[in-house]
């Protein structure tokens, strides 16, 4: 899955779950926290979605504001956590 595909899935979820996002045109680099789109409970909702959707586990140490600043920063973080797909040609 490419970073753009990850961003698309995140954006769809955020717009669906958070009314403030639905009423604003948020770009990939717009601050989700500063624009009042998510709060601490919103971060937990996103964590649950990310863990289920992308099959990754986030530790408490990784739940920092830098990762949840924007859709782009969250997608980049998810991409870094995903295990690269390995093809077996044996």
Automatic annotation (TrEMBL):
Coiled coil: none annotated. PROSITE patterns: CARRIER (PS50075). Pfam families: PP-binding (PF00550). InterPro entries: ACP-like_sf, PP-bd_ACP. Gene3D superfamilies: ACP-like. Residues 4-82 form the Carrier domain. This is Acyl carrier protein.
